[in-house]
């Protein structure tokens, strides 16, 4: 199995669940579900089929309807088939906003094969978080941040060291996420520089009239790292 793909599959499928979390928050590992793991395996062995170091582009934590179903970061079921060419039997729900934005960027940069050759899409905290059945962000509660901090340190360290990511730069998707990624990096000293971009969902919800300009900003920023 390809080097990067094998390491990614191992990282996501074995990352530990926390014993418990405060404020009614639960952590879920979709990668331990055979159907999700198989879709992730197909994606990884298609697009991560080499040992080339990639730039980490890290979001917050996976959503239950995107990566939680497909195993692939910022990729809902529709995008997994339409853009990545991976067939499946998952129901087609309303497209995820973040997915729509990311794949506009991906396509502007030459499509999935070209994009994923240079970039790794992942998350600061790699498991799904939910509260009362809805998506939850790790930074929405100081108590959750405190409880998850050791796991977040482990997550970043493993992604850099075990996946073989580039260490000259990393990209945060989201400004609040960037604050915590910088704090983690200050503690661990893994990346030389952190670049922070507005989160795709924020741009789609509140800056959609500037969609073309926002996509162009992403393309130019990421393109400058090649």
From TrEMBL:
UniProt cross-references to SUPFAM superfamilies, sorted A to Z: Uracil-DNA glycosylase-like
Coiled-coil blocks: none
InterPro entries: Phe_SMUG2-like, Uracil-DNA_glycosylase-like, Uracil-DNA_glycosylase-like_sf
Species of origin: Hymenobacter sedentarius
Chain ranges of the Uracil-DNA glycosylase-like domain: 48-222
Name of the protein in question: Uracil-DNA glycosylase-like domain-containing protein
CDD domains the record matches: UDG-F3-like_SMUG2
């Amino acid at each position: 199995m390809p080097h990067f793909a094998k390491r990614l599959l191992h990282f996501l499928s074995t990352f530990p669940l926390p014993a418990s979390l405060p404020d009614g928050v639960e952590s879920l590992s979709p990668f331990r579900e055979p159907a999700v793991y198989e879709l992730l395996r197909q994606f990884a062995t298609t697009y991560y089929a080499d040992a080339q170091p990639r730039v980490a582009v890290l979001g917050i934590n996976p959503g239950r309807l995107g990566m939680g179903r497909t195993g692939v970061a910022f990729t809902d079921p529709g995008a997994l088939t339409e853009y990545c060419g991976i067939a499946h039997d998952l129901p087609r729900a309303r497209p995820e906003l973040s997915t729509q934005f990311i794949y506009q960027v991906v396509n502007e940069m030459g499509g999935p094969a070209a994009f994923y050759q240079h970039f790794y899409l992942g998350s600061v905290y790699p498991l799904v978080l939910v509260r009362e059945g809805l998506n939850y962000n790790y930074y929405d509660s100081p108590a959750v941040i405190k409880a998850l901090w050791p796991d977040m340190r482990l997550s970043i360290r493993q992604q850099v060291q075990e996946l073989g990511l580039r260490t000259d730069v990393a990209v945060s998707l989201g400004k609040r996420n960037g604050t915590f990624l910088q704090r983690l990096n200050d503690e661990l000293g893994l990346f030389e520089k952190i670049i922070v971009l507005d989160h795709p969902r924020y741009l789609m919800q509140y800056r959609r009239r500037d969609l073309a300009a926002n996509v162009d900003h992403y393309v130019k920023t990421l393109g400058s790292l090649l």
